Backbone:
């Protein structure tokens, strides 16, 4: 469904160009859920943005459902892959009602039955008719993230790109959103590519997990292998250790030298 | 505990609102010795407000009421702003979430640390500089001379947070309140910052209050944990035994956390019981 072949993504040009992602090869089968973990600046969100067509890529090839895609895309290609962002406070227009937010993609893609689609999308994400004419500031964080998911779903995409969809939410709300995402995936046969720094969240939703560091994909492993500590890279081991919480004995023995600057 | 560093009894913080008073903190009681105390809760549970109330940082029109609010021998109730300014830094200090916003962007990090030393200990420029360099070394910064001259935008998040810790500890406070000190950092850097915090708090025999929404982190780092909900302390647990927590809220939160190696088709969602909102004390 999604294949990346030797993809390099750079920001800036000439001497100041920075390769945020280097020579990345990854494929996600239809209906599969794959996660990307890594520290900030490792390029994981950049990969999602390039797949969504928000930024161009410098080298390599990205194909969606067998067709090569670039920055310039047809409406159908855009419709196929939709993205949900991390911060529901920043990704919804503050001066538009939920109704307007959901009506815009319908209008852009010239879809029919706008009214039915909006009602249906709201119901899918567990929001009622009473939420339809509210502004984002009148909703809780979890409800806003539901609206963001509804906005992505209303175009009936086959691929959902999730950029830290729960890290701005409380634990109890996170559980609700994760349950919603697994249900939607099952009901619509969605292909998911999700980015998170939380290994447990990724492992909950995804079968395969890619570990990124400094723009490169270090390894692709499975949720089961992670849980059993069967990982090959030192960096992945460190991630696993950090995710387990604070361990006085290992923290004392661990090297405390972060490179200055 | 014979002589607690901090004693809080029936602390309440109230903000007047359009629809009556909002009680952000309700009858919170605890004591802090030379230990690491964790406060966990979801957003809006009053955990940060509790920390700010102790620091005297609840601004107008918020009201603080307490039967007891004592820092060592000092009664914090009704203490003037001047009185608080003398305490902050020297007796009690606070580290906030994001070093990007809590450091002065137009002053080198070394100067900021030295300034704290000068204003609290009335030291000379030269002594303050020396103390700041020593403190940077204590938070495991390898090249203190170089980092001293750097500006906040030039340091990484993890280093910024170590600079904050250095600044907060330079005047030798008894108590450090750390409000989500590692939430803005990468997980691998989190461990390093926590290890430094742990080392310094132990070696100086300080009391630490760690405020966080992260249950794993608090239970693995602290000695004791207060679980807050809707402004109240629902229960107090020994940190290592958080998994044996009794209150349905704590148990619900723990169950709702996805776990590596224990995959469930559906995560149990927290059912909120209106009874948890009722006044406990």
Residues:
């Amino acid at each position: 469904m999604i294949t990346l072949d030797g993809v390099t993504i750079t920001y800036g040009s000439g001497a100041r160009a920075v390769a945020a992602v280097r020579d990345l090869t990854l494929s996600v089968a239809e209906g599969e859920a794959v996660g990307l973990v890594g520290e900030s600046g490792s390029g994981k969100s950049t990969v999602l943005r390039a797949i969504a067509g928000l930024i161009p890529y410098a080298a390599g090839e990205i194909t969606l459902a067998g067709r090569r895609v670039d920055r310039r895309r047809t409406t159908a290609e855009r419709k196929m892959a939709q993205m949900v962002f991390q911060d529901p406070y920043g990704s919804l227009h503050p001066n538009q009602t939920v109704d307007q937010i959901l009506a815009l993609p319908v209008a852009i893609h010239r879809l029919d039955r706008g009214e039915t689609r909006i009602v249906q999308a709201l119901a899918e994400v567990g929001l009622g008719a009473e939420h339809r004419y509210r502004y984002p500031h009148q909703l809780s964080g979890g409800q806003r993230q539901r609206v963001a998911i509804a906005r992505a779903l209303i175009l009936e995409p086959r691929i959902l790109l999730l950029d830290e969809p729960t890290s701005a939410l409380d634990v109890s709300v996170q559980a609700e959103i994760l349950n919603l995402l697994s249900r939607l995936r099952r009901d619509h046969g969605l292909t998911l590519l999700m980015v998170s720094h939380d290994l447990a969240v990724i492992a909950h939703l995804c079968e395969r997990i890619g570990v990124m560091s400094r723009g490169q994909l270090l390894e692709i492993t499975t949720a089961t292998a992670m849980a059993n500590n069967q990982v090959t890279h030192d960096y992945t081991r460190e991630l696993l250790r950090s995710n387990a919480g604070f361990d006085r004995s290992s923290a004392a023995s661990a090297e405390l030298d972060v490179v200055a600057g | 505990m014979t002589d607690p560093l901090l004693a809080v009894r029936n602390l309440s913080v109230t903000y007047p609102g359009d629809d009556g008073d909002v009680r952000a903190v309700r009858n919170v009681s605890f004591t802090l010795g030379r230990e690491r105390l964790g406060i966990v809760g979801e957003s809006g549970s009053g955990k940060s407000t509790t920390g700010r109330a102790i620091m005297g940082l609840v601004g107008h029109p918020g009201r603080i009421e307490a039967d007891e609010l004592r820092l060592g021998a000092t009664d914090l109730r009704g203490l003037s702003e001047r009185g608080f300014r003398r305490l902050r830094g020297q007796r009690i200090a606070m580290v906030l979430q994001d070093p990007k916003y809590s450091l002065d962007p137009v002053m080198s990090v070394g100067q900021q640390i030295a300034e704290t030393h000068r204003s609290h200990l009335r030291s000379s420029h030269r002594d303050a500089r020396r103390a700041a360099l020593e403190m940077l070394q204590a938070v495991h910064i390898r090249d203190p001379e170089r980092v001293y001259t750097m500006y906040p935008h030039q340091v990484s998040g993890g280093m910024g947070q170590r600079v904050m810790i250095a600044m907060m500890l330079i005047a030798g406070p008894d108590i450090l309140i750390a409000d989500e000190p590692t939430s803005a950092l990468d997980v691998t850097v989190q461990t390093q910052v926590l290890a430094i915090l742990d080392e310094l708090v132990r070696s100086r025999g300080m009391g630490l209050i760690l405020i966080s929404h992260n249950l794993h982190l608090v239970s693995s780092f602290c000695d004791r944990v207060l679980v807050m909900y809707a402004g109240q302390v629902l229960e107090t647990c020994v940190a290592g035994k958080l998994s044996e927590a009794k209150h349905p809220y704590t148990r619900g939160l723990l169950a709702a956390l996805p776990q590596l190696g224990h995959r469930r088709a559906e995560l149990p969602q927290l059912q909120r019981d209106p009874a948890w909102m009722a006044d406990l004390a």
Q: What stands out?
A: The radius of gyration of chain B is 20 Å. Chain B is about 35% helix and 25% strand.
